[in-house]
Amino acid sequence: MSSEFFVRIIGMFIFFLMGGYWGYWFADQNSLDPIGYGLGYSMVGALIGLVATPWLTTRPIRGIRSLLSQVSAETLFSGMVGLVFGLVVAALTTFPLSMLPSPFRDVLPFLAVLLFGYFGVALFVMRQSDMLGVLGSLSGRSGDSASSPTWSQPTRTILLDTSVIIDGRVADIAKTGFLPGTLLIPRFVLNELQYIADSADSLRRQRGRRGMEVLSELQKTSAVTVRISDIDVDGVREVDDKLVILARQMKCPILTNDYNLNRVAELQGVVILNINELANAVKSVVLPGETFNIQIIQEGKEASQGVGYMEDGTMVVIENGNKFLGVNKNVTVTKVLQTAAGRMIFARPED
Is the pTM of this model over 0.90? Predict the structure, then answer.
């Protein structure tokens, strides 16, 4: 049985007693039948307790827990510290405010507690990165090496998608130090990864297990902080939808290589870090007229074309290159074409 059922029973019993007492008192004050009124009000009280108790107890608590589960640990910590500082400032102002004439001395101390408490929480949450950096400096962690990320370093939270974990390149990028901050993996992403790893399909199972290995490698990498959180979104079942909502609430980017998630997130104003776009951005830049050496390894789609690949994987289409299959040839760039799949280079062999 659920806890809400027991709360309803307890509430029904309490309201039953309260209704009976009030009915007996009302009948006694008006010279009426106390037993009849007591039983009648008891039944009404029991009904009210059965219906209203969850709305007064378990459901508000559940709503608060759901709200707190959607807030990052850094924000909670900053809010608590800000509340403490705000209450300390309010306590310092209480004595001079209590010296004012009535009714100011009765009202202003209470208002000071509310205002300074609110401003303390708001200030520390808005400037949580700076505040946590100051705390990290005071604790002596700012002198640590760059390989040990601390709050005093420029940090941010980055949500990881399942696809980018399975892809595996995120581990290599993290080792280079180009991902400063905390890589946050929600529990529902980890559950989806485990579901894929337990799939009956061998290919999906291999991909899921590869994702588990990549995640283990990320946790061992000292250049980045990896945190698995139980943070969740109620009322949403799809993992991609949960990630987008979390990213909007936490105001953090999503690291992914999923094209559909990329488009949906951008439409909702969420920042996306796409590994495929990063890979295309760091490929070698060549201009028309430049000459380089490349091995022609296969024929192209069109007649007389040859195809080769640069060290970064960029495809080079060589006109009249089918005559030089398996040969390293100097070629001159004639055109560079940027497509959705990446950069494509057209060239012709030198005479």
Answer: no
